């Protein structure tokens, strides 16, 4: 939690503090309620969640009267934790221990942190004693394979790659093949995220998935989403969700934004849990997402 607190930008704290200030005041008038809803909107919770949270706070305050600072904090914490949701399965569906490698496809728009997240996840799994194969199927972005290779070398994972411009599905196929041959525990496939046209993306990701499924089951499709892109990122996320069944979200760059509310917005939009969060560029800056720790960090 302390690490999370340290890593979330100071501005996220400002969000928590201004809500606490408004809610802990001795009088809460209509302007205050508008300010509370605006604060939630500005943190990218989305209109639906901002309204619901405000309504719930309003009802609780109406029923129990205004509260002191500690009471306001407890109330806000409860309502925000409920909004984030504690009933979703946030485990990465990997490593079923049934004698085959788990396959994780990592998808998302270029620049969101796909390759970095794939590398960090490999590191976590290797540190856990797993044999990991990385597939550099982002053959569109020239530097992506080199970048993944660096992550793989550092983590102690095998990297399967091919020449730039090669068929991503072929690389994905080879990576899974390698995983099976070497009896690996997990194969993580970094895909290309060109959002040129929806059909182009659909063709490419669809093909990658089909080709992988010739040899193994896809256990997890992780969508990488950049928290700093706010509502734009949300639109892009829904395009991916239309193309492939997303099973979890890795929300990156939470260290660089005041808009942590995107956690709630994206879960509501896709009906898929945020499972991992990126808290920096460093190798250890990937953490499992825990709603209560997250809200505590927001509230400072
Ligand atoms: P890709 O094109 O989606 O594969 O994106 P990259 O993995 O190359 O990442 C793009 C940039 O975002 C790089 O400079 C990364 O270091 C940076 N990045 C990725 N994740 C995080 C994060 O959680 N926090 C911060 N601050 N930067 C990140």
From TrEMBL:
GO BP field: SRP-dependent cotranslational protein targeting to membrane
Cellular localization per UniProt: Cell membrane; Cytoplasm
Molecular function terms, GO-annotated: GTP binding; GTPase activity; signal recognition particle binding
Positions bound to GTP: 108-115, 190-194, 252-255
Catalytic activity: GTP + H2O = GDP + phosphate + H(+)
Topology in membrane: Peripheral membrane protein
UniProt-listed Enzyme Commission number(s): 3.6.5.4
Record key words, sorted: Cell membrane, Cytoplasm, GTP-binding, Hydrolase, Membrane, Nucleotide-binding, Receptor, Transmembrane, Transmembrane helix
GO cellular component terms given for this protein: cytoplasm; plasma membrane
Domain SRP54-type proteins GTP-binding, residue spans: 273-286
Top EC class, one word: hydrolase
Superkingdom per UniProt: Bacteria
Task of the protein: Involved in targeting and insertion of nascent membrane proteins into the cytoplasmic membrane. Acts as a receptor for the complex formed by the signal recognition particle (SRP) and the ribosome-nascent chain (RNC).
Binding partners and assembly: Part of the signal recognition particle protein translocation system, which is composed of SRP and FtsY.
Family classification: Belongs to the GTP-binding SRP family. FtsY subfamily.
Protein name (Swiss-Prot/TrEMBL): Signal recognition particle receptor FtsY
Organism (species): Nakamurella flava
